[in-house]
Amino acid sequence: SVSAGATVQWVLSGSAIDYSSTWNNTATLDLPAGYFDPLLVTNSSTVSVNILGADPRITKQSIDKEIRAGDPVSYRLTLSNPPGSTLSEAVIRDTLPAGFTFASTTSVVLVGGVTRPVVTNPAVGSATPEWGTFDVPSGGSVIIEFVANTPAALTCGSTVYSNSGRVDYEVASTPQFRVFDGNLIGNAADDVVIPCPPTVSKS
What is the rounded distance in angstroms from the CA atom of residue 56 to the CA atom of residue 176? Predict the structure, then answer.
């Protein structure tokens, strides 16, 4: 029982996971039967805590920076897991530019004790190839190189063909994801351009 005017305080403590997240903690007062409270809204309170952690990183790089329309283009996806927790059941995805399609996987390199319990690979012709599944320990990384086909009708000149990468994974059974957005200003590592051929005129 709590006397009128008295205060009861509980202190909870715990350890945060190593990745950025938001914790929401809600405390609720349940009143005894027969007790009337005209302000039930004051019987619950939520506190949110932002955890600043060391997050995994997915990056995308075009190995071929300049191509001709219709030529294949090579890319590299890199998943890096900084010191901290293990990423479980990670799936690496890529979103190719419009008209580009997956052709083949050149290599999948596992670094720092990474394992691949279940092997899934993209289907030829996919516009959103994905590779899985990876268990990535603290400090581990996955490097994927692959080839995509490009349409013959691509525009040459100033058009920049950008694409993005994404990794979905679990930390302590909690689903999370990280994205490399190739369309953002400053994310030029994935860009591919098609130079226009020189023109010859005679007068």
Answer: 10
